[in-house]
Design a protein that fits this description.
The chain has helices spanning 17-36, 45-48, 56-70, 116-132, 139-152, 157-161, 178-192, 203-218, 230-239, and strands at residues 3-4, 77-83, 89-92, 98-104, 164-165, 170-173, 243-245, 252-254, 262-265, 272-275. The longest helix is centred in the first third of the chain and has 20 residues, at 17-36. The strands form four sheets. It has a three-stranded antiparallel beta sheet with strand order 1-6-5. A three-stranded mixed beta sheet has the order 2-4-3, with helices on one face. The model has no long low-confidence stretch (mean pLDDT 91). It is elongated. By secondary structure, the chain is an alpha+beta fold. The N and C termini lie far apart (46 Å).
């Protein structure tokens, strides 16, 4: 997993949104809606806190165990170590049940110790996807899928909270932009009724969550959804296009244009959506 320590290198906005949406669709297809609902509660910060400077290795092991539980990997054993490396972290993917996670040695220092859980969240999600056999076509897309899965399944809010910026320097973990993390967390919040905003200790992470939440809200206002508004639906009718993405899972749905008010049921996430002419 990469990390950035320069303000100029932190990408913002929603450049990967198509892949993000495809990743959420893939999660629902692989896990099923009932499987996704097993992750209704996010990992609490207290479960992944590494506080004792004398026991950083034991603390990292404890955080890894908490994330294994969060991601429903009951027989996965994580061996966590620290070393000098270019990236933030890496994991050795094998048949298991033991996996070796390496963290950049900077996470053992006091200034970065609070982000051990965030670094582990991405790597342990790699293990989950490896076991599920869930992959996208390219390496870059798979890394985005990993961030999306971590955030949607209740561990990746830690990755967004690890984003910090003070004008002179910054830190960001993962492959999604901060706003894209906020977008996925907002998608999760809409399904589980979970508000992550009180958990953010980073002001810029909270701002990214707000921008991501606004982008996610727009998905519910796409024609022919009833929430799109009359003018938008009228423009869509003029174009004759009844295809739209499910605002929950991103699956492409179709309703016949020009019909009266109807309910569309997504075959992937089972959400029932109200559509209007």
């Amino acid at each position: 997993m990469p990390h950035s320590d320069e303000v100029s290198r932190v990408e913002h906005g929603f450049p990967h949104l198509d892949t993000v949406r495809s990743s959420i669709t893939a999660l629902y297809r692989r896990l099923s809606p009932d499987g996704v609902r097993r992750y209704e509660t996010s990992v609490p910060a207290s479960d992944v806190a590494v506080e004792d400077p004398e026991e950083v290795h034991l603390g990292a092991q404890g955080a890894a165990r908490a994330l294994v539980r969060q991601l429903r990997l009951p027989d996965a054993r994580m061996v966590v170590s620290f070393r000098a490396m270019e990236h933030a972290a890496s994991v050795e993917l094998t048949a298991g049940p033991e996996y070796f996670v390496e963290l950049n040695e900077r996470f053992a220092r006091a200034a970065h110790r609070r982000d051990i859980g965030a670094a582990l969240a991405h790597e342990i999600t790699h293990v989950l996807l490896h076991r599920l056999g869930l992959f996208l076509p390219t390496t870059a897309e798979n890394e985005i899928l990993t961030d999306v899965a971590a955030a949607y399944l209740g561990a990746g809010w830690l990755l967004l909270d690890a984003f910090r910026q003070d004008g002179m320097s910054s830190q960001k973990l993962g492959y999604l932009t901060p706003e894209e993390f906020g977008y996925v967390l907002a998608k999760r919040a809409a399904v589980f009724g979970e508000d992550p905003s009180p958990w953010f200790t980073s002001a810029v992470a909270y701002e990214a969550w707000v921008r991501g939440r606004a982008e996610a809200a727009r998905d519910w206002r796409r024609p022919p959804l009833a929430g799109a508004g009359w003018a938008a639906r009228r423009r869509a009718r003029a174009g004759g296009d009844g295809v739209f993405p499910c605002p929950v899972c991103g699956q492409r749905l179709r309703v016949a244009p020009g019909r009266g008010r109807v309910k569309a049921r997504c075959g992937v996430c089972r959400t029932v959506l109200e559509c209007a002419p």
